Structure formats: structure tokens, C-alpha cells
Amino acid sequence: MDVLLRAYFDDVKFVKTHDYITLRRKLFEETQEDFSFLEGYDTMAIVALAYDKTQVKFAGKGHGMVARYAYGEDYHKTFYRLFDTLEAQAQSLGYHIKGYADVSPVDERFLGYIGGLGFIGHNDLLIHPKFGTYMMLGTILIDQAMGEDQPLIEQGCGSCTKCIDACPGGALSKEGFVKQHCLSYQSQMKEPLTLTQVKKFKTFLWGCDVCQRVCPKNAGLQGPFHPSFHPDEQSQLNLEALLTLSNKAFSKQYKDYAYAFRGGLVMKRNAIMLMYNQRLSQHLPLIKETLKTYWHVDWFKETVAPMVEEMEQWQ
Prior knowledge:
By secondary structure, the protein is α+β, with helices and mostly antiparallel strands. It has 2 domains: about 1-50 and about 70-140, no CATH class; about 170-205 and about 235-310, no CATH class. About 35% of the residues lie in helices and about 15% in strands. It has 13 helices and 11 strands. The strands form 4 sheets. A 4-stranded antiparallel sheet has the order 1-2-7-4, with helices on both faces. A 3-stranded mixed sheet has the order 10-3-11. Strands 5-6 form a two-stranded antiparallel ribbon. The chain is elongated.
């Protein structure tokens, strides 16, 4: 089984299910997690797919970048395609497995840390000794015992605070991560944003890569890099074109990308924020029409209306 998993993933580590549950209960007593989904599985494998950190060059005003992890095929689709293949092959070897990617009850970064896949940095990301932070994580539950315990990677960030200093939202500190201040989090959530928050969005339409770009652990990364996540023409988007698409058309056109799962209205909100910060006043009529169409959506209205009021004063 070990050999089979390593044929599909760039790194694999194993953790006894009992050890994962014991540590979670010890360290996070207040969460009262439900571990019933782990019943019948002896081992948890944390698996990684690495991707190249190379980013497309910003095309300038009128465009919005997407975070590097969202380039190419939606990684959820990549993982679950692999999981489907693996389940059949594992069954032929006498194993029963279940795969998860991102949307699961498993804390994948925690599992990766206790499994020896990497350490959790000041940027709140798992940092691999070979791939840095540029990897996708998945979990595979296995009904049999696998391998030996892996030593923890205790390398850590030391005195380095580059990601903390560079974080545009002030979400990072040595004391912990405040997700509500993270631009990547804000760009994905259906919540009202203040003008102060809006003004931090300059070029990124979806997500934020600042903490990864400045991290010294991401220098000189080695492959192999998974081809599904290479840049393509949808790695940055035209802002005006986004506003002209219906939400249904957006979902159809971008269904294979990781940024599509929150729907077209979130991306339209984000596009308007970039138009505002890039001072694209020529698009004000289109922005006002979009606001009128979605006036009934509170979080959208409360974010966009103050921008429109200010942009009207530019005229």
C-alpha cells in the first residue's frame, strides 16, 4: 500500500488513527470533535501534491490575480480523481480506504505535522523541507496498520518574521493566526467588508500569496511539480468581463477552477473592490447596475454601496 500511494503522490506520511485522536483530545479539549468517521480505520495517511511557485505576471489595471494554489485544475477534482483510482487498486490488494481533500473533518496541517511531513510556520501553513508551502494536502484513511511513526520536523521559523511583517491584513503573529484579518479569507467569505478592509485589495481577486512569496523556506524549491496546477489563461481575470457574466454563466465557465466554488457573486464583489482600488471610474455605470441587481444580498450591498458613493465623487 505504501508503494501504491507513493506512485500517485509526491510525499506520504502515516499516523496511527489512535494517536491522532488522542492528541486532538489532549490539545483541543474545547472543540469536542466528533471522531466517529474514523471508526474502522487503523491508519491515516497525509499525502501531498507539489506545485511550482512560478506566478503569472500581473497584466495591469483592469485585471485581478488569483492565488497560486488556484491555478489550473481545481485541486479537489485532482485529488478525488486519484482517490477513485486508488480505492479500486487498494481493494484488489485487500485494503479498504477513504480519501478526503480540504473539505473534511480532518485537520490536515495538524496531521501533516504529527506525521513528520513538515512544520507549521508563522504563516499558519505546513512547510515541507522540499516543497515549502507550495503543496496541496489530502488525507487517506486506511483500515490496516501502515509503516512506522515518523519523527516530527522541528526546524521551525526561528527568529524570522518576514511573513508577519509583510501580511497586508495583519493576520499573522508569533502568538497565532487571526483568520478574520486574512485577505485570502476575506476574499472568499460572504460577509460585509468595510472600506478599510476593501482598500487592502490591490491586485489579488482571489486569495493572497504574500506570506508565501516572502518566506525564505520557499527559496530553491525542488520538483517534481504536478502538471494539473500549471498556470493557464484563467490565472488572472478581466474585471469588466466578470461583471458582465451571470452567476450561472460564471459557474459554467470556471467550473474546473478552485475559485469557482463560492460562486460568481463573491468574485463580482472582489472585482468591484479591485476596480475601486485601481480607480477605474469608467466602469462605475456597470458597477452601479450590478449593485442594483444584487441589492437584496446584504453582504454584497453593504460592501459595494460605500465604494459606489465614493466613486461618484470622483466624477
